[in-house]
Amino acid sequence: MPPFICSGFLHLPGGWWCSFNFFRPQHIHSSSERILAPEATDQFLWILIVAAFGAFFAAFGIGANDVANAFATSVGAKALTIKQAVVLAGVFEFLGAVFLGSHVTKTIRKGIADIECFQDNPGILMYGNMCVVYTTGIWLLLASFFELPVSTTHSTIGGIVGMAMTYRGAGCVVWYEKNELFPYFTYLELI
């Protein structure tokens, strides 16, 4: 059964809206699959709501930092006007996030912090990731204000690594995962 279950309807100004149950998973897929009661996930609803605002805040910081890096040379060389660069950036950043963002999301969600370390307390993982989103947004806005070239990826990954290490130590960080698509890591081990 998909986790996106229509759980009822909300009356909002402007009409009725279907309320989707994104935050009440029916199953957790782990070594011992168990069914969660809805009350067990209601306590984390505030984290979801606050993190959603944080995601928009971080997206503003990402736009302020990364879009300038991508289009500064084109605008500086007068190949594009600022208006053209803003339109192109908006279109292609959106398309890239929609069509290619799932792989990045999968890596950030599962490939950095070992989620098995958080099985006994998933609220810590949610709270920690929410803090990572806010701190990444704050750092990017500060760096953009002071015109510092920083990496959004390094900021986010560093935040997740720090969160996982603070909670349970270095063993909760996925430091290395063998990938058959990129076999060159085998030779890097020798160096």
TrEMBL record:
Intracellular or extracellular location(s): Membrane
Keywords: Membrane, Phosphate transport, Transmembrane, Transmembrane helix, Transport
PANTHER family: PHOSPHATE TRANSPORTER
Molecular function in Gene Ontology: phosphate transmembrane transporter activity
GO cellular component terms listed in the entry, alphabetical order: membrane
Designated name of the protein: High affinity phosphate transporter
A Gene Ontology BP annotation from the UniProt entry: phosphate ion transmembrane transport
Keyword Magnesium in record: no
Organism: Ectocarpus siliculosus
Highest rank taxon of the organism: Eukaryota
InterPro entries documented for this protein: Phos_transporter
Pfam family, one: PHO4
